[in-house]
Specification:
- The structure is a single chain.
- By secondary structure, this protein is an alpha+beta fold.
- It has helices at residues 20-38, 98-110, 123-129, 140-143, 162-170, 190-211, 222-232, 252-262, and strands at 48-52, 59-62, 78-81, 86-88, 116-120, 149-151, 175-178, 182-187.
- An eight-stranded mixed β-sheet has the order 4-3-2-1-5-8-7-6, with helices on both faces.
- The chain starts with 19 loop residues before the first helix and ends in a 6-residue tail after the last helix.
- Mean pLDDT is 90; it is low at 1-8.
Length: 268
């Protein structure tokens, strides 16, 4: 299920150079940048979120390196291809983040069912990335992820030969902890990717708070952890057994309404 229309608010008039599907993707991605900023998950102008361009093989949208997430709009996003060619850039002063290109081209080039890739450097995410234990299943939020991938730190991700190892280590997981670096989440839609990063960030934040109390942690039995993961794998809650709904779809219209109340310029 890959929504291509906006369920809430009114977008600015679509520029002629963008198809309806690309414009809808741009508005959704701009909204995701604003949401990451709203929930305090950005790192000034650093980090990056990308979204595959609908019906265009091997191309994706990404932020101009140098703009704050709070400044991102639908028309400001760059369009690049897997080989690093910039196909659309309305800016003279901004271009693509090299590390962003390496990380995002790796995943978009190898995993064709992944539309969105999201990377963060939050204090709590970085803290967990530096812990030998990694993410612990000490909360229901953390137990939502049946598999968390890990990628060892190799330095700033600007070398293209790291792409193969990033994809290998990610495997079939939806989230990955980049050791000594930060977090990464993927999704079949931008909605799903945002939900994934939001949840793993909260799980990391809670773990750091719990570990700072200098008190023994309670880790549920493996059977309970597995049961919780089975319950939450494809649905926002466990109150509708047998009914599956991808994460992110339910709350997205409400999140867009919130953004429209705060600042609807993301749609421009």
């Amino acid at each position: 299920m890959r929504p291509t229309t906006m369920p809430a608010g009114k977008s600015a008039q679509r520029p002629a150079q963008f198809s309806e599907k690309e414009w809808a993707a741009r508005v959704n991605l701009a909204a995701c940048y604003r949401l990451v900023d709203h929930y305090d998950m950005c790192d000034m102008v650093y980090n990056h979120i990308s979204l595959r361009v609908p019906d265009e093989e091997g191309t994706f949208l990404i932020n101009p390196f140098g703009m704050m997430y709070s400044e991102i709009t639908a028309s400001s996003l760059l369009k690049v291809d897997i080989d690093g060619n910039i196909l659309y850039n309305p800016w003279e002063e901004y271009s693509i983040n090299r590390a962003g290109y390496v990380i995002h081209s790796a995943i978009h080039g190898a995993l064709h069912d992944v539309d969105c890739v999201l990377h963060t450097h939050t204090p709590d995410g970085m803290a967990v990335s530096a812990l030998e234990c990694g993410l612990l299943p000490i909360t229901q939020t953390a137990m939502r992820f049946g598999k968390v991938a890990y990628h060892d730190y190799e330095g700033v991700a600007v070398d293209e030969d790291e792409r193969e190892r990033l994809v290998r280590d990610l495997g079939d997981a939806e989230v990955m902890i980049l050791r000594n670096h930060g977090l990464l989440a993927i999704g079949r839609t931008v909605q799903q990717a945002f939900n994934n990063i939001y949840r793993i960030e909260r799980a990391c934040r809670t773990q750091i708070k719990a570990m700072s109390c200098n008190s023994p942690l309670i880790i549920p039995q493996k059977a309970v952890i597995q049961k919780t993961n089975d319950q939450l794998r494809l649905q926002p809650s466990a109150d509708a057994p047998g009914k599956q709904k991808p994460y992110g779809i339910l709350e997205w219209p409400a999140l867009l309404r919130m953004l429209d109340r705060i600042d609807p310029s993301f749609r421009d």
